[in-house]
Each structure stands twice: as structure tokens, then as C-alpha cells.
Amino acid sequence: MTEKHSGSCLCGSVRFEIVGAFEHFFLCHCGRCRKGSGSAHGANLFSTDARITWLSGEDKVSSFALAGTRHARSFCVACGAALPSIQDEGKLLVTPAGGLDGPLPKRPDAHINVASRADWDCALEDLAAFEGLPD
């Protein structure tokens, strides 16, 4: 059975559907992914076979490629949410895991670029955890 995933941006202006399997799911700790996500790492799914269809808001998708690198990202111009991007001359679909709207039957394969990990992103297992917002 062919995998099918739907997703959207934060404001809902952009909606998309991806048909096909993701070959890799990496949590990347490089400085570029941290800057792009505003978090400890980027969480991206990679596929050479999956295809994306923009269901709405394709005109609100903007892309940025950092000159001299392989780093690129797409985002909604209305809300800034990360969106899938087609890279390597159309050969690779890179999808931010947080942009998918449903369950994902794949766990991350690995943390990558951990030598660049933020100094505050270590031994976090002992932090307090809340089901919702803290009081």
C-alpha cells in the first residue's frame, strides 16, 4: 500500500499531500538547521520517490537556499511555518516532520551533526514534563 501524508502550515493557508515513502528521518543538529527551526534541531523526512501535490496556497510558498551550501528550506510567507522543499535538482523531497497533520509511522533514524549540537541540548531526560502549559 502506498503511503499518503497530508500537511499544512501554521495558519492553514498552505495545504499539501505527499504520496510515497520517506526513506530517511533525521534530527539534524547543525547550526543551519537550528537557525532554520529556531530549536535544538531540524526534524526532516527525506524521499527520492515521494511526490508532493500542493492542495492550496502554493502561491504562499517561498524558498531560501543558502549560497555555497546544500542548505535550503521552504516556508509559508503568511505565517513562516516550515514547508516541504524539492532539492537536488528535483531529485529529493525534504519534508519538515512537524508540518504533517497526521501520525507518522516512522521514528527518526538518527541524530546527525551532533558535533554542532547546542550546549543546552544535552541530558534533557530529567527535566520536568507537563501535559499542557505549566502553572
Could you characterize the architecture of this molecule?
The chain is mainly β and 135 residues long. The protein has one helix at residues 31-37; strands spanning 4-8, 15-19, 24-28, 42-47, 51-56, 61-65, 72-76, 82-83, 85-87, 92-96, 110-112. The strands form three sheets. Strands 9-10-4-3-11 form a five-stranded mixed sheet. A three-stranded antiparallel sheet has the order 1-2-5, with no helix packed on it.
Primary descriptors:
135 residues, five-stranded mixed β-sheet, mainly beta, 11 strands, Metal Binding Protein, Guanine Nucleotide Exchange Factor, Chain A
Number of strands: 11
Examine the secondary-structure arrangement and name the CATH architecture: Beta Complex
Percent strand:
35-45%
- Large-scale geometry: globular
Distance between the termini: 45 Å
Strand order of the largest sheet: 9-10-4-3-11
The third-level CATH topology is Metal Binding Protein, Guanine Nucleotide Exchange Factor, Chain A
Low-confidence stretches: none
* Rg of Cα set: 16 Å
Order of helices and strands: EEEHEEEEEEEE
What is the domain tally?
A: 1
Content-based structural category: mainly beta
Mean pLDDT: 94
Largest sheet: 5 strands, mixed
Highest-level CATH class: Mainly Beta
Helix content: under 10%
Number of helices: 1
List the helices and strands and how they pair.
Layout: E1 4-8, E2 15-19, E3 24-28, H1 31-37, E4 42-47, E5 51-56, E6 61-65, E7 72-76, E8 82-83, E9 85-87, E10 92-96, E11 110-112
Parallel strand pairs: 3-11
Antiparallel strand pairs: 1-2, 2-5, 3-4, 4-10, 6-7, 7-8, 9-10
